[in-house]
Amino acid sequence: MKINEIPTPAYVVDEGKLVENLEILKGVQERTGCKILLAQKAFSMFSEYPLIGKYLSGTTASGLYEARLGHEEMGKENHIFSPAYRENEMDEIAAICDHVIFNSFSQLKRFRERCQGKTGIGLRVNPECSTQGDHAIYDPCAPGSRLGVTQEKLERELQTFAGALDGVEGLHFHTLCEQNADDLETTLQAVEQRFGSYLKQMKWLNMGGGHHITRADYDIGRLERCICHMRDAYDLDIYLEPGEAVALNAGYLVTEVMDIVENRGIQTLILDASAACHMPDVLEMPYRPPLRGSGEPGEKPYTYRLSSCTCLAGDIIGDYSFDQEMHPGDRLYFEDMAIYSMVKNNTFNGIALPSIWAMEPAAGLTKPAGASAELTAEPAEPEENTAELTNERQVPSGECRLVKAFRYEDFKGRLS
């Protein structure tokens, strides 16, 4: 079944793009000797874990359930960080994880003996170096942050008890969000300044996630220099745990126009997909998700506001323009929908969860059948002006296979 034929709403993961990303990450590992882990908090489509496991070194988790998923479905290195751990879960965590990273000395003290001899112990540090810019909600180095031990706290603990770091094999920091290697380089300067003397006592350093390694403008050379510098200067094994970079631009949310309403000159498309339910980052971050074949408001002849069939007045995806007038039954293809979508969706208002599909790699693009607002794809031979092609609402022509469909029972099963 083709992407223009599947029932909506639906998430579709492009396996060709997924492999393209994985090849880039594999190259970084091979050239530097670092280990790259899948951060499951961004992408947990475990049906793809056998594929991902051919390229990456393992998984990282934010809690027991993710740790179990990585252990059961990929079966390679399995790491975990959580701001706090439950007493009744620690033994299982220690049994299935290769590294357990603690957020505070109180957590380290509480669980050190239960982890020693079973798993590697790490401590998250806070280099107090903010590089987030517009992503303040994701800034772990903001003043008053609950994430990571500061230099002052570390030194105070060591003054109180000289063995405060006993059993700790590695340090972990995570300060980035969708950023380039220049921000990593800046962060590493702060890490060395504040924690360099302690790194010399460690076996490994985990540089966390937020590295947009597979983005077209990412400076991979600078990243690799950073990795090699830390590896050689402190004789460390280096870990990175990106989530977005693994599945960046590798997914679609396919939706259909159900109705069009007008109020004070604003025409709103009512979709069977929802920002609140199916792509919560649109409201939380916020951001305007890319939509294939669209433009900024007023850029193209027909401008619409995109919303959903929930009762939430603010369930607005954004304003987009199109080359042609839209009609009920037309399909839209939101891009970059593999990450932070399936892992965050919900059934507010009883809205159905999108089905999950995988699209096999295929060359070329095709026009969706039966959609009045779609444009015809160019022939397989590329034109000189390829920039114009990217504005057309073409969709990949790979064959799609259903991975998971959700029914009423899935909605009811989340309730009581």
The strand count comes to 18
Count of DSSP helices? Answer: 13
- C-alpha end-to-end distance: 36 Å
Q: How would a textbook summarize the main sheet?
A: 8 strands, mixed
Percent in helix:
25-40%
Overall average pLDDT: 92
Strand content is 15-25%
Radius of gyration: 23 Å
- Can you tell me the residue ranges where pLDDT is under 50 for at least 5 consecutive residues? 363-392
C-alpha geometry: elongated
Name the structural class: alpha/beta
Structure description:
The chain is of the alpha/beta class and 416 residues long. The chain has 13 helices and 18 strands. Strands 1, 10, 11, 12, 13, 14, 15 and 18 form an eight-stranded mixed beta sheet that branches. An eight-stranded parallel β-barrel has the order 2-3-4-5-6-7-8-9, surrounded by five helices. Strand 7, helix 7 and strand 8 form a beta-alpha-beta unit. Helix 7 runs parallel beside helix 8. The chain starts with 9 loop residues before the first strand and ends with a helix. About 7% of the residues have low confidence.
Keywords:
416 residues, alpha/beta, eight-stranded mixed beta sheet, eight-stranded parallel β-barrel, 18 strands, 22% strand, elongated
List the helices and strands and how they pair.
Elements: E1 10-14, H1 15-32, E2 35-39, H2 49-52, E3 58-61, H3 64-73, E4 77-81, H4 90-96, E5 99-102, H5 105-115, E6 120-124, H6 151-160, E7 168-172, H7 181-199, E8 204-206, H8 220-234, E9 237-240, H9 244-247, E10 251-263, E11 266-271, H10 275-278, H11 281-284, E12 302-308, E13 316-322, E14 331-335, E15 355-359, E16 365-366, H12 386-389, E17 395-396, E18 400-404, H13 408-413
Parallel strand pairs: 1-15, 2-3, 2-9, 3-4, 4-5, 5-6, 6-7, 7-8, 8-9, 11-12
Antiparallel strand pairs: 1-10, 10-11, 10-14, 12-13, 15-18, 16-17
Helix pairs in contact: 7-8
